[in-house]
Structure formats: C-alpha cells, structure tokens
Protein: Potassium channel subfamily K member 1
Organism: Littorina saxatilis
Amino acid sequence: MSSLARLVRHPECRLLTHVVVFVVYLCIGAATFQFLEGHGERTLVSDLRATRDQFSDITKDCISEEELERFIEKVVSAANRGVSATRNVTMSEPNWSFGQALFFASTVLTTIGYGRVTPLSDVGKAFCIVYAVIGIPLTLILFTALVERIIIPVKAFLYFLFRKLGHLYKAFHIQLLHLMITLVALVTLFMLVPAGIYTVLEPSWNYLDAFYYCFISLTTIGLGDFVPGDNADQPHRALYKVATTVYLLLGLLMMMTTLSVLYEIPELNLGFHFYLKNDCPDDEQTRLRGDTTDASGAGPKYRKQVDDAENQAGSSSGGTYQSFQDKEVGEEDQ
C-alpha cells in the first residue's frame, strides 16, 4: 500500500493524471458544445434554406428593396455565425460536429479565440463562461508542467554547447546561440512547415496567408480572419479540425519553451528593468522592520528586503553576506 502511495505522489504520475484530466475536460467541453449548439445550427440552416427558396419564388415576378434587404440581412446574420448561404446552404459537415466543437473548445482554453464560430444559445454562452473560468487555469498549469519537462533536454543541449565552445566564447554568446537555435526550430517546425501544409489544404490561401495564420494563432492573438477548415467543400472537416487542435497545442508548448529559454538570459530579460527594486527601501519597509516581532516578542523574524540591502552593502565593503536566518541562529546560540 505504501508503494502505491509513493507512486501516486510521484511527479510523473501526477503529470500523467493532469494530462488525462485535461483531455477528458476538453472532450467534455466539446461534447457539451456539440449538444448545446448543434440544434440551433440545424434550425438556422433550415430557416436560411426556406428563406432562399422563398426568395427564388418572389424573383419570378419582381422583388422590392425591402424584401431584398431582409434577405441580405438574413444571409449576413447566418454567415456571421458560420453558416454559408452558398451552394444551396450545404456544408460537408456542420459547424458543431464533435471535431468542430473540440477545435472551438481548444481555442477557448488556450485563449486564442478566433470568433468565427460562437455559441448561439444563451445556455451555450453561459456554459462557455463557466468552462473558460475552470479550463483556462487548468490549461496554464498543465502547460507549465509540460514545459518544465521539455526544458530539461533543451538545457542539456545548452550544457553541451558550453562544453564544446566554453573555451572560445563568453557564456552570453553561447546562450545567445542556443536561443537562436531554439527560435529557428520553432519557426521552422511550427510556422514554415505548417504554412506549406495549409497552403496545400486551403485552396484560397497563399503561403503568406498560411504563415500569417500560424503566427497569429501561436501568439494567441487569434484574429479569426483566417481559420482552417472553414471552406464548405473541405473534405474530412472534423478530422482536419482535430489535427489543427493538436498542432495548436504543440505549437503553444514550443512557444512557451522558447520564452523560457529567453528568460534564462539575464541580458535579454528586459522585464528586469521594470521590476520593483530593493535598492532603496521605503519608509513603510523600514517601519515594518522595527515593528515586526514574533509571537514571543523576541524580535523581528522576517526583514528580507531591508536586511538584504544592508548585508549586500556590507559585503561590498569587505564583509561577508550572511542571511537573516543565519544571524538569528547565531544569536540564539549566544
């Protein structure tokens, strides 16, 4: 029993459990969206087809501006919700098939949010809010845990570069080379190559359009002006959407890994220049230093910001830096 408990507490077991929970949660979202939105879409398609037939009958004799305006409004309204009026309102697969719903759920959880296909019903909109509130933190935690695993071989490659080039170049230059290699791998494997694939699969896209889509998606901008699989004649549309979902998840992981490599280089971590500094402790920090005592009244227990600044100053004048906790131990021994 103890061995089973140790296995459950093992980090890799926890990660695997998280992956399973994430996949199940994603599928639950897709199935729920399919159930909530499928009927509304079918009704919209039926109404639009009836309106189209009615328009055809009217135009046999004449058509007024008001009738034409109403027809156009219905067509535009349906198009904004992902239903095309062309080809007699026929699509290879509905927008809320399971594959389509899985793709939509992934764009919600990753905050890409294209906006081309959205919930139509009030219940669907309410579920989308609750689903996102729970799912977005779950996704961020999972991605962080996965990046921690991915970064291990990435750092091993950096140490390999240090061993081979450390006697020739400075550490910063080697780190910069490592970052460039990682960045080239990201752009090549998750932007240039997929852009070529999308150019073949999407007849209306040129290579720039496809590369633009890859970049906008992996940076989670998600403008929604280009979305794969939106062509009404797209074969195997649901499978195509599932494959795109997998691509987006892997691409976002690689993007986060590249950012982690960037943040490991202090000279390129520009955010450091905008962080709060402890060089000059303010009056509130100084007041807390004198006021903070432990439960027994023995004196201050935690003065990290002030004490660190003082100790570092003493170290620069020839002293030795010693943490506040070590000083406390010495005082108790005396």
About this structure: The chain has two domains: 2-267, 283-325. Residues 2-267 form a domain with the Helix Hairpins fold (CATH 1.10.287.70). Residues 11-58 form the longest helix (48 residues). Residues 31 and 98 are 6 Å apart (CA to CA).
